[in-house]
Specification:
about 525 residues; mainly beta; seven-stranded antiparallel beta sheet; six-stranded antiparallel beta sheet; 39 strands; about 0% helix
Length: about 525
């Protein structure tokens, strides 16, 4: 006689993550300023520019003890559950314990480089990351280093054999502006950095695959604007689907934008808007609303020691993309703010960054406060607030730089990927929110044994947990596949996990009373 053994529930999770996702949950910036969306709280917020006062809930909480001290460039990365992994100013990498990571000093960034670096996963690796760093002005030292989080008990180390490796082949001098975009295969990445000369400017593209960073430039496009290489500044950002970008130039006060092909790394439909900034302002920050419908740009005074102007512009991005005359497209919303120098604190705008909560954040220069745009998808009725004393340190120009889009769908197999034949087991399919999920019209779960009932289809899936009871009829090794489809029946992403099914049968002694009933 035989008795079947029960087994624990197997957990297979499918995760959609992106620009507004848990990997971006911890921000380190300014002088010892840090925030986390891992824990949230409420703040009394002062409405500005015509917005009434309010209490904002689900706001990020303070992180104390940050050793980072930077005027501008910074970046950070967390795990899929929002736990901090490491952070940097582009020169030094600190681990989650806020200690300098092994081999983590001496990188090529600079604290006054607008985007001194950016971080993204090494393709097809679960433990390694690519840290791209870039110096001030026209230092032309765009480099990458590999961070291995499997070292030092999970605290990580920078691989000395792959540290400060220069990227090459660029057009123009590189400095202060760098972005990263996930390839359409959802694994590889693109690095994009503007180059500048006194007669022209360019957008250079490099590819990153499982074979490594291709240090020779992949592609380039000419922007067609004379620049000042010694005073570059200005952020470059991408929409969450990676298909569009905006780059704002600091000293020359124009912004370039267009289409980006995440499959080929080719930039097209390139356009330039000039004359948009107020007199005395210099182009600095840029970001998209979560939907990608609106682009927000900030400009700052040329010096913190001058009474100059700063401001915020919001454009309908589709209107910019489709026009043949960019200078005729005016902002939906424009805020001009004369800088006031009082006790060393100025209310000028620096970087602008969309948070994991969909709100947009701007640092309040030289203070423990920030500005918050609560409704970025409705710029005509913008609700913008000032929150004082939200930071444990001081904010200045910069906010963390993140790769876009951060869209990853993956299976997290159980620790012991084994089960028993003929045992009905509950399988849990967890769907977590994030950019890209709006493109999914159905999800198909295939248990991989080719039998009737092995395929489960979820039409119009929603965020949450789905439970399926399933029993493999025979012992063997099976591939469980989860595929997300869009409305055109195209595959958004497909991922799989191997499951070993054992017979799980024990021979029982019939002479032991009660077991053979």
């Amino acid at each position: 006689m035989y008795k079947k053994i029960s087994i624990t529930v197997l957990l297979i999770s499918i995760t959609f993550l992106s620009y507004a996702q848990k990997e971006n949950s911890n921000w380190f910036f300014g002088y010892n300023a840090a925030l986390t969306w891992k824990n949230t709280t409420s703040y009394a917020a002062t409405g500005v520019y015509g917005t009434a006062n309010a209490t904002l809930s689900n706001m990020p909480a303070k992180i104390t003890g940050s050793p980072l001290a930077t005027y501008e460039g910074c970046f950070a990365i967390s795990d899929v559950d929002g736990n901090l992994l490491f952070f940097s100013d582009g020169m030094t990498i600190w681990n989650k314990n806020m200690a300098v990571m092994a081999n983590g000093s001496g990188l090529t960034g600079h604290s006054s480089s607008a985007q001194s670096g950016i971080i993204f996963p090494y393709p097809y690796s679960t433990t390694q990351y690519v840290a791209v760093t870039l110096g001030i002005n026209n230092t032309n030292n765009l480099s990458y280093s590999i961070v291995d989080m499997s070292k030092n008990g999970g605290l990580g180390e920078v691989d000395l054999t792959r540290k400060n490796i220069l990227l090459s082949g660029q057009s123009g001098a590189l400095g202060e502006s760098v972005g990263a975009v996930r390839h359409s295969n959802r694994n590889d990445f693109w690095i994009v950095a503007p180059g500048r000369t006194t007669t022209n400017s360019y957008l250079n593209v490099w590819k990153v695959t499982s074979a490594g960073v291709q240090t020779a430039r992949h592609s380039v496009v000419t922007v067609g604007m004379a620049t000042t290489p010694t005073a570059p500044g200005g952020y470059i950002k991408f929409t969450s689907d990676g298909q569009h970008f905006v780059w704002i130039d600091f000293s020359n006060k124009f912004f370039a934008y267009g289409d980006f092909n995440p499959s080929t790394g080719i930039i097209s439909n390139l356009k330039v808007r000039t004359g948009a900034l107020s007199t005395g302002g210099y182009g600095y920050g840029v970001d998209f609303s979560a939907s990608g419908k609106y682009v927000y740009l900030t400009y700052a005074p040329g010096s913190v020691n001058t009474n100059n102007t700063t401001g915020l512009l919001v454009y309908d991005f589709n209107a910019l993309l489709t026009t043949s005359t960019p200078n005729t497209i005016n902002p939906i919303k424009s805020i001009v703010n004369p800088v006031s120098l009082t006790n060393g604190v100025t209310d000028h705008f620096g970087a602008i960054q969309t948070g994991p909560d969909g709100r947009m954040y701007l640092p309040r220069f030289g203070s423990t406060g920030i500005f918050v745009i609560d409704n970025p998808e409705d710029p005509s009725n913008m609700k913008i607030y000032k929150i004082n004393n939200i930071l444990p340190g001081l904010a200045f120009w910069g906010l963390p730089n993140f790769a876009a889009p951060w869209f990853r769908m993956e299976i997290d197999p159980p620790t012991n990927s084994e089960g028993c034949a003929e045992i009905t087991t509950s399988y849990k399919l967890n769907i977590h929110n994030g950019m890209g999920f709006n493109n999914v019209s159905k999800i198909v779960l295939d248990f991989g044994d080719g039998t009737t009932g092995a395929v489960k289809t979820y039409t119009s899936p929603s965020i949450g947990t789905y439970t399926e009871n399933y029993a493999y009829k025979k012992a063997g090794t099976y591939t469980i596949t989860i595929t997300a489809y869009n409305s055109s029946n195209g595959v958004e992403l497909s991922t799989s996990s191997v499951m070993k099914i054992n017979s799980c049968a024990l021979r029982c002694n019939p002479h032991i009373r009660g077991l053979n009933k």
